[in-house]
Amino acid sequence: MGLVEDRDKWNTRYAEAATPPARPEPHPLAQRFERRLPAGRLLDAACGLGRGIACAGPRIETIYAVDLSDVAIATARRLWASDPRIRWIVADVAALRFPRAFLDMVCAFGFTNWALLKDLERIVAPGGFVLYEGFAERQREVNPRLDPAWTATPASLLRLFGHWEVLACAETESDGPPYRVHLAAVHPRQVKEA
Ligand SMILES: C[S@@+](CC[C@H](N)C(=O)[O-])C[C@H]1O[C@@H](n2cnc3c(N)ncnc32)[C@H](O)[C@@H]1O
Asked: What pLDDT score was predicted for residue 193?
């Protein structure tokens, strides 16, 4: 699926949502590691209605909320109107070139993009935090049409993040589909030379 089709698909989903939108709850990973969450700049990658925004602790100063869907951003903007820290960006988040070590925390929930995941080594500051959850490869057993590029396994995540301080990397416990995998990791203070 191309970016335009993807944007149209998500715009339709957000426009036709049956229940009135509400601010999402913080992701359980943020609750689990609450005491360690950093200060500074947070990126909510593919923010939707702002589950990553909900993870921002009080020490976060600026939140970059990025989504391909202008309908998601318009809706989220209304939900979070009282939070002056947020900069709203309608864009393909993987195409944004953040400067090296610019971000102190990145949340990517319900969004697996390997170009972005690989770029986190560069754009996250030493000691910065990444919280991620996406479809597990196993989800293809129930949805064979799911693009394998939109899935991950603990092993594929550890190939990228194995040298970070990995706080959690596992299949998310569930009684059934959708099957998901999650990661919480802290950027290494000694960056590997490419
Ligand atoms: C499953 S939703 C997750 C939303 C939110 N992160 C959450 O957990 O509730 C996936 C989101 O990814 C967005 N999206 C898809 N491709 C994207 C891209 N390349 N760049 C930015 N956002 C994207 C969609 O518009 C949609 O809002």
From this structure: 54
